[in-house]
Design goal:
CATH topology of the largest domain in chain A: FAD/NAD(P)-binding domain
Helix content of chain A: 25-40%
CATH class of the largest domain in chain A: Alpha Beta
Family (chains A, B): Belongs to the flavin monoamine oxidase family.
Protein name (chains A, B): Flavin-containing monoamine oxidase AofH
GO molecular function (chains A, B): oxidoreductase activity
Oligomer: homodimer
Largest sheet of chain A: 8 strands, mixed
Structural class of chain A: alpha/beta
Number of domains of chain A: 3
Shape of chain A: globular
Strand content of chain A: 15-25%
Organism (chains A, B): Pseudomonas turukhanskensis
Distance between the termini of chain A: 21 Å
CATH architecture of the largest domain in chain A: 3-Layer(bba) Sandwich
Keywords (chains A, B): Oxidoreductase
Chain lengths: 448, 448
């Protein structure tokens, strides 16, 4: 039985940052985490040979000032994502090298891609990040899927496939899962499309020494015993002057609560009084993206010897995107691949052996048969994770932004809402998690 | 602590029907209901003067053979929905009388409506109700919203408004909330568009004497002490040979469990082992529709004296649809109205006084100032209902049917799934609730 000023639900980046800001301001804080680890949607994997690479979220990049600031405070260093050599594309059955973000295509395809990208960026810049529904065209844009926009505005099959891949890479979802308005919001939230998709100067530019889960581990060191693991919050009661939270282990009392979990997880906590109908319905309409992140370790990063970067994009699944996720200071090579959206849900029901075989087949398609013989293989299906139930973040289908989704971040009595889904800048990213945390902490500080 | 062959979660039509079929076959059954009443999404309201009318689901109609059969078994009678006199439309600021389903419009608007209806019905008939994703065009149809289809295929503003109203009436949702594939599925599931929308020969043809909640009350009489109220299931554990269910009141053990609750409610039960990732994600992607059902009682059904049926359709909200919901044998008149979709979520956060004033203003717009002075007013916001969190049923946004939604009705170990959302015929209606119940009961009977 604890009694604190503020209880934070969720020990991911957002929850722990909120807790730390409150602790720095002298408030008594408790963080209740359902899992037996901190990190939320970040998770380090330690290979048998000792190297650490991420099986959850991992990247930071320019314009992500809040997470970069936090890394500085925590004395965490970054290093550049491996980005030397040629990338590969597999389109029309042919493997081709390229450099940069967009594969080599025929001129008319490149023009098609370029025009669509220009239009997306131009429309995105018109969005009010505080509430995208304020745009005069929001009713139209929020009533169509991104798939529909692609069908209308992108003429060539190859360019369409590129936008499908971009959707997978950015949202862990298919274009049909997304409101077009949300896509515009997300592009502006993450600066522009080049920044979202890029490695150098983009959202995939840098990695964190020791793995991104260290952010949460460092915050936890500073918060000490305030962080309680394996305490899933099952129920809460709001009274006039406090909130009581019931976990599997006991009960905690706080003046205010900050939720720092994906929207769908808030629904799963029995609340008294009930959440208002509109808020429950809003949370119902924000499902998580779906991704299986896969890594194979090899004796060496053998693709580098052939002048390859380890980055591939492909119209053949289930692994359509790969990266070189090797660890600096190690001679070993790590290939990383993503299975996303519909395919992630399909492959989540296969057993691990089937998944490993198929992922390695995909790696071999890009990097040769040597990829079939890793030292070690690991994957993680984030839909199976008890307290995330999907990654990277919540998706906004048509009709959600236009019906009050900006109110997601409004407090509800003594309940406040953090988590990257409540961010206006870099929603869905570490940076958004920090922005949301600092906004929620400031709300609470003003009130307690 | 109970110990039964089968525990059913949810005492709506589907759950109680499943339980009764199992009891009839000699199985020991328990029904656990979270609420302090049976009925699920049906709910009778008793006015001060004693008349009973429904503040939840209420209608049955032709081709709904399963619910009509059940009514026969339970000795429940039906009566015709009041459908005499002129209907009213309010379009372009003008109130006009009409008969039948479609208001009087200019010829080119009627042609526009007729052609769109013809196309919808024709496409719907091609759908495989067992799995709409089998249609060759399913990837296209499931990647667009119904709003997008209307924008492309319906040319006149008035005809578009008619389809907006049809979407509200049938789904309690806006066209942008719905996958076009789901709309086609739903039309075929409910026979055709005329049947879905119609009163005579349609889904609104008949009402149940004593109110539709009597279906559940009669089933409960037959099941006796097997039905346990105020027992919300919070957690369950599946082991090799049984399932343990934990409610606020205690624990129950069963060989098999049938869920007969909306998909979003399944998510809120803590499960051990966790539901598979694909199933959790599927449930996340099935939010409930939103409706506030409103009734006002008057000394007489005064609109009838003016030759009006009490049915209105309007492009002005929040009440865009009304019905005469008077009770046979009473001299009183009851007007009933629906607030649906986006507007239901908006109005759910207003207080009851504001809602009453606005609803009566809408009634007055159609039926004159006399409507401002009811004897009694009542409304119910179904998003606020703890164990439904929305009505009429779950919505299928783009990308859900195409990514395995037909598996919603697959068992998961010892868990089976009923509820109208798992029906193939008349999904979302009482009839679908019965079909799903009988299918789930048959599954369990074959195994226990």
């Amino acid at each position: 039985m604890g009694d604190t000023d503020v209880t934070v639900v969720g020990a991911g980046i957002s929850g722990l940052t909120a807790a730390w800001r409150l602790a720095q301001a002298g408030r008594r804080v408790t963080v209740l985490e359902g899992n037996d680890r901190v990190g939320g949607r970040t998770l380090n994997h330690r290979f048998a040979s000792g190297e650490v690479a991420e099986i959850g979220g991992q990247w930071v990049g320019p314009t992500q000032d809040r997470i970069l600031g936090l890394l500085g405070e925590l004395n965490l260093d970054t290093f550049a994502t491996w980005n030397q050599g040629n990338n590969l594309t597999l389109f029309g059955g042919r493997l081709k090298p390229y450099r940069g973000t967009i594969p080599k295509f025929a001129a008319h395809v490149l023009l098609d891609i370029g025009q669509a990208q220009w239009r997306l960026d131009r429309l995105a810049q018109q969005i009010d990040l505080d509430d995208p529904s304020r745009h005069p065209k929001a009713p139209l844009w929020d009533s169509m899927t991104f798939a529909e926009w692609i069908r209308r505005q992108v003429k060539t099959a190859q360019a369409r496939t590129v936008f499908d891949l971009a959707s997978a890479a950015v949202f862990a979802a298919k274009p049909h899962d997304l409101s077009f308005l949300h896509v515009l919001f997300y592009i502006k939230s993450g600066t522009n499309l080049d920044t979202l998709l890029g490695v150098d100067k983009g959202a995939q530019q840098d990695r964190i020494v020791g793995g991104s889960q260290r952010i949460c581990e460092e915050l936890t060191l500073r918060l000490g015993s305030a962080v309680r693991l394996a305490q899933p919050v099952r129920a809460l009661k709001q009274t006039r002057d406090h909130v009581e939270l019931i976990t599997d282990q006991g009960s905690h009392r706080a003046k205010r609560v900050i939720f720092a979990v994906p929207p769908t997880m808030v629904l799963r906590i029995t609340q008294e009084p009930l959440l208002p109908g509109w808020r429950d319905q809003l949370l119902q309409r924000l499902p998580q993206g779906a991704v299986i992140k896969c890594m194979a370790m090899y004796e060496t990063p053998f693709w580098r010897e052939r002048g390859l970067s380890g980055q591939a994009t492909s119209e053949v699944g289930p692994v359509r995107l790969t990266f070189d996720n090797s660890v600096p200071g190690s001679r070993k090579g790590v290939l990383m691949g993503f299975i996303e959206g519909d395919e992630a849900r399909q492959w989540s029901s296969r057993n691990e052996g089937q998944r490993q075989a198929e992922v390695l087949r995909c790696f071999a398609r890009y990097y040769g048969d040597h990829a079939l013989q890793p030292l070690e293989y690991v994957d993680k299906c984030w839909a199976d994770e008890a307290f995330a139930r999907g990654c990277y973040a919540a998706l906004f289908p048509p009709g959600v932004w236009g019906n009050g989704a900006a109110r997601l971040r409004d407090p509800c009595g003594r309940l406040h809402f953090a988590g990257t889904e409540t961010a206006t800048r870099w929603m869905g990213y570490f940076d958004g998690a920090v922005q949301a945390a600092e906004r929620a902490a400031a709300e609470v500080l003003a009130l307690t």
